[in-house]
């Protein structure tokens, strides 16, 4: 046997010596940013590790450092070192809740108990000057990319996306997420809960999946895709596979389900590789509507009687708590209650008060329940012995409290998106006993939302008011933060979180990812605020624009220029402001002296107003804000690259479930014909042939006790049904539902005038060519079905469109040979377009 060359260092080959020298030099050479290569283990051995400089992701494969001779015995094996984060890099737990304003959590003066956030604030820091974008997925895009929301393609939510770079709902490849950066630097990355950053037209099984969590650097995803979710029966995914963990488990709730899954995941990672740091992005759907807490939490909150004296008193109590805790300045002013928007509590009827209290108790239970489940995840980190070196960032809300329930609230949020936002209290009281259960898709009155945004005004969607954009946050990192329990008042924005995490991990932002040069990070690291003497440090994030659906603002060194609110969030329909940049009343605030944005001083500083408007224009040009668009509901039906776009016929020959609304045939505001060629076996058949949507809005085509049925569920308020008189005999049959729509087109109307949407029509059910029933519908749904429910063929997933007829999955027991959908979407005639334009000119003239 030939001698082993490595046994004698004097006989080591030159190649091996050169490789060792190269590794030693690299290990001692400081690189850009914080990066300095750190290695461990014997170079080339299976146990060797290394950090990377991070400028290029993924890191280039190193050259082979061993020796290759003609035979293995004379050769030297060599393994590339495993990539790891820098030594002592912290674990990261990034938490953000949904639709929750500054005055909600007890940590910042709210009456709803949030002991987990309290705990993190006591062991870390409280931040009272952190800002969102005023809407869900735009905030989330900024949070995970470190860029402004328009820069990341999310000027609005994906369901409103339009064909402009700042609004297309596509996070471009030059803006890698924090998940991708940390994964390629050796972290275990995971995402639990809400993902509202998948384009609505990329949410089906055909993908593409590059804008799903697993395509954005998150190795594991457990959650839902879209803006909201039924917490009892969610449209839930593990990575890209739809799952149904709630089936056969009465009382199962997603808030607990995702905490359970996160706990299991973190424990598995810890057991498999204890030294591998984790990045866990934990973003529950609470407290976005529907408000679905467990009954246990509803009873806990109800027993506390927090809301019996109404929203005016609640606002005052929160305000006093905030001053007592020192989270707002003692001289903060509270504006008068906005009786022109929401009436005083004392002016509510007894029935209204009873309903409104039930609404808010359910919301509060949802908040408290969610904070408790977040606490279980935090406790898991502590039980693993990793809390000391875990950076926990807990942001309360991705925007201000939602007022999309309108002044009266609603048992069905889908109603709001279809223009029904003032459902009579008497109608709502029918749902009183089941409020917050699976039988409702509930939202609370905007009166509570105003109170929960104390000390600020307005709500989610209102980007020009602090009630829409000011959040609160707690950050804990016991090993590093020594000034425990202190308050930080520096201006910050959700786009600051990525650079903060990178600095804490000593990982630089990459210059290239997958060969694509990266756009600069636009946020500012908050790591400077972690120092014990940082309480009086000046803000390093000095300028920030805000814009949402035509309402806008600019922050600069303590000054805030903002547009006067010209639309309440529940006013989503109707003509939009044609010139949102200039057709505005501008207000000016000195936030250094006016914490609550209550003293408009624009008339005293006209030059400042002019200067800051020009600064806003410059920022807007820089970050893809133009073209500005003030339309709201109209953008939901605007054309976008749905995979069905341009198609008028759809043919299916096999059962299929789980096709999301954004990728399925769109039948609203159209004429259409649905034809099913089926075979009925001996003994008859029943079950679902086709359905889209669910309990709170949708349609179904099915056999019930052998009889053909077509049913439209109009936001759970009315159900229109076509039904054949006889059960189908065994054999082949052709079933047809034909609908003739009476409305106009949706092109220009979608952006300017909603009167052509949701009009009526006539439906005809036929069996084997014979008409069996014709029913006229006085109106149809104008905007959406229940968008967390899917388009299903052959069975029904999640909830039923008519609980009185069947329970899911209601699998079709016959044979489906062919299902054909033909859509005839009406177009505007030239005369109609001319009439519309003339009408819009009159509307604009009236505004002037």
Detailed description of the structure:
The protein has 848 residues and is an alpha+beta fold. It has three domains: 79 residues, no CATH class; 463 residues, Alkaline Phosphatase, subunit A, CATH 3.40.720; 190 residues, Jelly Rolls, CATH 2.60.120.200. The protein has 16 helices and 33 strands. Strands 5, 6, 7, 8, 9, 10, 11, 12, 13, 14 and 15 form an eleven-stranded mixed sheet that branches. A six-stranded antiparallel sheet has the order 22-33-24-29-30-31, with no helix packed on it. β27 and β28 form a beta hairpin. α5 runs parallel beside α8, α6 crosses α8 and α7 packs parallel to α11. The N terminus and C terminus are likely disordered.
């Amino acid at each position: 046997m030939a001698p082993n060359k490595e046994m004698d260092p004097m006989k080591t080959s030159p190649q091996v010596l050169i490789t060792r020298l190269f590794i030693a030099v690299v290990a001692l050479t400081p690189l850009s940013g914080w990066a300095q290569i750190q290695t461990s283990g014997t170079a080339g051995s299976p146990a060797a590790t290394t950090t990377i400089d991070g400028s290029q992701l993924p890191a280039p494969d190193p050259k082979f450092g061993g020796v290759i001779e003609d035979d293995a015995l004379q050769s030297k094996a060599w393994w590339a070192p495993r990539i790891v984060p820098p030594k002592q890099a912290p674990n990261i737990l990034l938490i953000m809740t949904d639709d929750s304003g500054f005055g909600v959590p007890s940590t910042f003066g709210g009456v709803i108990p949030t002991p987990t956030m309290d705990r993190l604030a006591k062991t870390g820091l409280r931040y009272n000057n952190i800002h969102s974008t005023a809407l869900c997925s735009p905030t989330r895009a900024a949070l995970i990319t470190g860029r402004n929301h328009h820069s990341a393609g999310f000027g609005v939510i994906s369901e409103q996306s339009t064909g402009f770079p700042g609004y297309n709902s596509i996070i471009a490849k030059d803006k890698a997420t924090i998940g991708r950066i940390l994964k390629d630097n050796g972290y275990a990355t995971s995402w639990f809960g809400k993902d509202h950053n998948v384009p609505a037209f990329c949410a089906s099984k055909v993908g593409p999946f590059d804008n799903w969590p697993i395509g954005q650097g998150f190795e594991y995803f457990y959650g839902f895709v879209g803006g909201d979710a039924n917490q009892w029966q969610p449209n839930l995914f593990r990575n890209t596979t739809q799952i149904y963990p709630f089936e056969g488990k009465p009382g199962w709730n997603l808030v607990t389900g995702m905490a359970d899954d996160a706990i299991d995941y973190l424990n598995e990672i810890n057991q498999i590789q204890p030294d591998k740091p984790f990045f866990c992005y934990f973003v529950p759907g609470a407290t976005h509507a529907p408000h679905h807490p467990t009954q246990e939490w509803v009873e806990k909150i109800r027993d506390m009687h927090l809301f019996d004296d109404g929203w005016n008193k609640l606002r005052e109590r929160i305000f006093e708590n905030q001053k007592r805790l020192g989270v707002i300045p003692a001289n903060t002013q509270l504006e008068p209650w906005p009786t022109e928007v929401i009436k005083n509590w004392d002016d509510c009827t007894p029935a209204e008060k009873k309903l409104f209290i039930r609404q808010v108790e359910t919301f509060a239970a949802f908040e408290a329940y969610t904070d408790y489940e977040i606490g279980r995840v935090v406790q898991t980190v502590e039980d693993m012995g990793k809390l000391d070196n875990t950076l926990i960032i807990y942001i309360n809300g991705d925007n201000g409290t939602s007022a999309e329930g309108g002044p009266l609230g609603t048992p069905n949020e889908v109603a709001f998106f279809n223009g029904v936002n003032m459902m009579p209290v008497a109608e709502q009281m029918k749902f009183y006993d089941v409020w917050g259960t699976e039988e409702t898709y509930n939202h609370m009155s905007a009166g509570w939302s105003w109170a929960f945004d104390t000390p600020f005004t307005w709500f989610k969607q209102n980007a020009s008011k602090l009630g829409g954009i000011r959040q609160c946050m707690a950050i804990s990192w016991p090993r590093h933060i020594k000034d425990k329990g202190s308050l930080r008042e520096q201006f910050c924005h959700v786009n600051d979180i990525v650079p903060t995490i990178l600095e804490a991990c000593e990982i630089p932002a990459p210059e290239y990812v997958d060969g694509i040069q990266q756009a600069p990070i636009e946020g500012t690291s908050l790591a400077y605020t972690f120092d014990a003497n940082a309480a009086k440090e000046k803000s390093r994030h000095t300028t920030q624009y805000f814009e949402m659906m035509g309402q806008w603002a600019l922050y600069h060194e303590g000054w805030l220029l903002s547009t006067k609110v010209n639309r309440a969030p529940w006013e989503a329909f109707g003509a939009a402001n044609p010139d949102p940049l200039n057709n505005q009343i501008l207000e000016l605030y000195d936030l250094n002296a006016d914490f609550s944005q209550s003293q408009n001083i624009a008339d005293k500083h006209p030059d400042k107003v002019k200067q800051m408007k020009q600064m806003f224009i410059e920022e807007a040009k820089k970050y893809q804000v133009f073209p500005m668009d003030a339309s709201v509901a109209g953008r939901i039906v605007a054309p976008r690259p749905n995979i069905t776009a341009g198609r008028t016929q759809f043919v299916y020959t096999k059962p299929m479930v789980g096709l999301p609304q954004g990728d399925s045939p769109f039948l609203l505001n159209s004429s259409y014909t649905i034809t099913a060629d089926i075979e009925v076996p001996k003994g008859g058949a029943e079950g679902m042939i086709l359905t889209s949507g669910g309990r709170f809005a949708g349609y179904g085509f099915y056999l019930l006790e052998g009889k053909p049925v077509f049913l439209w569920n109009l936001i759970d308020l009315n159900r229109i049904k076509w039904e054949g008189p006889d059960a189908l005999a065994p054999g082949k049959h052709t079933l047809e539902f034909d609908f003739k729509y009476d409305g106009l087109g949706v092109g220009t109307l979608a952006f300017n005038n909603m009167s052509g949407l949701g009009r009526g029509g006539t439906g005809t059910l036929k069996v084997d060519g014979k008409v069996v029933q014709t029913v006229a519908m006085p109106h149809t749904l104008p905007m959406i079905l229940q968008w967390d429910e899917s388009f299903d063929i052959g069975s029904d997933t999640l909830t039923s469109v008519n609980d009185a007829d069947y329970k899911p999955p209601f699998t079709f027991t016959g044979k489906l040979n062919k299902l054909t959908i033909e859509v005839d979407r009406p177009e505007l005639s030239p005369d109609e377009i001319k009439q519309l334009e003339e009408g819009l000119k009159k509307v604009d003239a009236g505004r002037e």
